[in-house]
Amino acid sequence: MIKQHYDDGKKHIHVLSYGGGTQSTALLLMALKGEINGVIPDYIIFSDTGWEPQHVYNWVNKVNEHIKATFGREIIFTDNGNIRDDIVQGAETGDRFASIPFFTRDSKGEIGIARRQCTNEYKILPVNRKIRSLLGYKPRQRIKEVVHLWKGISTDEIQRVKPSRESWQVAEHPLVDVAFIDRSRCITYVEREGLGTPAKSSCIGCPFHDYNAWRDMKMKDPESWNDAVEIDRLIRKLPRFKNNAFLHKSGKPLEEVNFNEDQLDIDHFLNECEGMCGV
């Protein structure tokens, strides 16, 4: 629970894990304005996978400049390498890399999904490592403080609310437990702060992109689209997948998937009206 004072005799540290997207931006601004039970995070940490679209990096820099000018605070950046570079090296040399959830197709044509290791290795581990460093701990040293890690999960994503696996850490979900707002209200909140519509943060080649995300990328961000197509071709060289790894859930090469980009259906307009498309 996020409180200004605790009666357990322990030191409590509050860390906001900033993802660079819609919900975490709303949470960041609320937090620095004291709207999360009056508690201001001690640290704000962004873990960079190295494979976000350029508009996300532009957004993160914009937000960082805003909070420096308005609140005298800034984002702390960390990383655990570059996920794209690691995939390329793995395909070319066979070296191990943190698997992303590629879609696979077996001899019967059935679609499966590879193990997901990327979130842990490029997001969770770097943030935990940075927290240890900021608190002055070496690897494997026991952390004495109670660290409250704030995550930008909104009420429409409540299935993502989970406890921390770290004994020294408490997972906090202020948008659910304190603000009780959904994604659309997060967008409105950020827009009212004068920053514009927040970006939707995810890796360029994330297999969890939905139909609209892929189509928007193809239509509006050709640089990212071409990059995703290149990596989609490359992953079929990975020995363990035997030419059957794909970024798209159809189990087809990305460039062969029909996104009906030459026409706009009614769902596309509805999604745009709800502020859900490309943010």
TrEMBL record:
<dbReference type="Pfam" id="PF01507">
    <property type="entry name" value="PAPS_reduct"/>
</dbReference>
<feature type="domain" description="Phosphoadenosine phosphosulphate reductase">
    <location>
        <begin position="14"/>
        <end position="69"/>
    </location>
</feature>
<dbReference type="InterPro" id="IPR002500">
    <property type="entry name" value="PAPS_reduct_dom"/>
</dbReference>
<dbReference type="InterPro" id="IPR014729">
    <property type="entry name" value="Rossmann-like_a/b/a_fold"/>
</dbReference>
<protein>
    <submittedName>
        <fullName>Phosphoadenosine phosphosulfate reductase family protein</fullName>
    </submittedName>
</protein>
